TrEMBL record, chain A:
Keywords: Cell inner membrane, Cell membrane, Membrane, Transmembrane, Transmembrane helix
UniProt-recorded name of the protein: Paraquat-inducible protein A
Chain ranges passing through the membrane: 58-79, 104-132, 153-173, 179-197
GO cellular component terms, semicolon-separated: plasma membrane
Localization, UniProt: Cell inner membrane
Keyword Cell membrane found: yes
Organism: Albidovulum inexpectatum
TrEMBL record, chain B:
Origin: domain of life: Bacteria
Keywords: Membrane, Transmembrane, Transmembrane helix
Stretches that traverse the bilayer: 61-81, 122-139, 159-179, 185-203
The organism of origin for this protein: Albidovulum inexpectatum
Annotated Pfam families: PqiA (PF04403)
UniProt protein name: Paraquat-inducible protein A
This protein's record includes keyword Transmembrane helix: yes
InterPro entries in UniProt: PqiA-like
Entry keyword annotation includes Transmembrane helix: yes
């Protein structure tokens, strides 16, 4: 391995952190500064040893995302008109329709992106935020993996919004068939954006601080 | 707990601060050593990738970003998809898809989709060229290069070109039963752009770029 950790005897997981050394690391560029430095000299990002208000913002955005997710499921996502017959379908309704058509693969993609991922994300972020406070939770690597998955996968929920946009732009055949977006598209997009912000506001260093506390 | 560390002299026990690197994920402190190209250095505690320099990465990223920017411009102006059903015909461009929400009174959502799909990806390509082209040529960094690069990294999760192309695939399957859909040149340009973006992100090592920017600014 090319980067060596500091000479730091002790338990295997114990590693000297910047905070313990009286330093602060920049999360944007990795540069190390004295603890009282406010702005990174290399990249100009604001420095904070630990983001004190991180959890408050995580909860605030998470609740906003949860609230927006309710109308996203109640109101129609797509309004289809074929020969004057008007049909409204919600997110789950759209998935059921796809299953009836026999497109199992696409139904699965939409179901995972619009239902499994958002709900899984709410639970995962809430669990992370709670586990950081209580000291009994799972080991650091598990929590780290959950955090990485949440960060990576959250954006993919936007698929459904893009599908609606493309369908609404493409299927405009006057009387024969037309597709228009429903109000749920707005709430769903907001819900996804809010949960993305929630995950971004989480300071992963808190995971490892709690782990250190478990250890000692 | 707070130890005052003067910047010039470094830490009494750990040496100059320029030779240290803090893991952005777990705050673990590591001593920086030379990492050979095509090697990867990870944090010892949380295994986050700290440094992954690639040979000629700067040049490759600039080339790929330029390619992606050209493809994006092509994707905006060429026809994207064409739908045929019972003698009726409907065409849409990417802008058409982006503006679909504005016809239904959802203009803010239209603007957001425009930013996610076209605006932010394109702005990121331009930002990367602006920051890295002088690096690739061995020049001094351009004015405000640090600010531009910081912004481009911050905006990264909101550039959703690759998600849009999967959305297109899902939409195509949804209408496949009702009508015939032909992808236009813009569709292929956009698909190529997504591939180029993925390739480009594989070459990106943000800590290496920051260090290079820093060294070039000083020298």
């Amino acid at each position: 391995m090319s980067v060596h950790d500091m000479a730091n005897a002790g338990r295997t997981h114990e590693i000297l952190t910047a905070r313990r050394a009286g330093l602060v690391g920049c999360t944007t560029c990795g540069k190390v500064h004295p603890l009282d430095t406010r702005v990174c000299r290399r990249c100009g990002a604001a420095l904070q040893s630990r983001d004190e208000t991180s959890l408050q913002r995580v909860w605030a955005w998470l609740i906003a995302g949860l609230v927006a997710y309710i109308p996203a499921n109640v109101y129609p996502m797509l309004i289809t008109q074929t020969f004057g017959k008007r049909q409204e379908s919600t997110i789950v309704g759209g998935v059921i329709e796809l299953v009836h058509h026999g497109s199992w693969g696409v139904a699965l993609i939409v179901f995972v992106a619009s239902v499994v991922v958002p709900i899984g994300k709410f639970i995962a972020i809430a669990w992370l935020a709670i586990s950081v406070r209580s000291r009994s939770a799972a080991d650091g690597h598990t929590r780290q993996h959950v955090y990485e998955i949440v960060e990576f996968i959250g954006r993919w929920s936007m698929i459904d919004v893009f599908v609606v946009a493309i369908l609404a732009a493409l299927v405009q055949l006057d009387f024969v068939a037309s597709v228009n977006p429903g109000t749920a598209a707005v709430s769903f997009a907001l819900s996804v954006a809010f949960t993305m912000l929630s995950a971004q506001n989480f300071d992963p260093r808190l995971i490892w601080d709690a782990y250190e506390a478990d250890d000692t | 707990m707070t130890i005052h560390v003067p910047h010039t002299t470094g830490h009494p026990a750990l040496g100059p601060l320029d030779e240290l690197i803090a893991c952005p994920t777990c705050d673990g402190l590591h001593r920086l050593v030379h990492v050979a190209p095509d090697m990867t250095a990870r944090c010892r505690r949380c295994h986050t990738v700290l440094l992954a320099p690639r040979r000629g990465a700067m040049t490759q990223i600039v080339m790929l970003a330029a390619t992606a920017a050209i493809l994006m411009i092509a994707a905006i102006f060429f026809p994207f998809l064409e739908l045929q059903a019972g003698g009726l015909n409907q065409r849409t461009s990417i802008m058409g898809a982006v503006l679909a929400f504005s016809h239904a009174g959802m203009l803010p959502l239209s603007l957001a989709v425009a930013a996610f799909v076209v605006g932010l990806p394109l702005a990121r390509f331009v930002a990367l060229i602006y920051v890295l082209a002088p690096m690739a040529l061995g020049w001094r960094p351009a004015r405000h290069a640090a600010r531009v690069f910081r912004w481009s990294e911050w905006v990264r999760p909101w550039a959703m070109a690759e998600i849009f192309i999967i959305g297109v695939a899902v939409a195509l399957v949804k209408v496949a039963g009702l009508a015939k859909v032909t992808p236009g040149p813009a569709f292929w340009a956009f698909a190529a752009l997504v591939l180029v973006t993925v390739l480009k992100d594989n070459f990106m090592c943000r800590f290496t770029i920051w260090r290079t920017l820093d060294e070039r600014t000083k020298s």
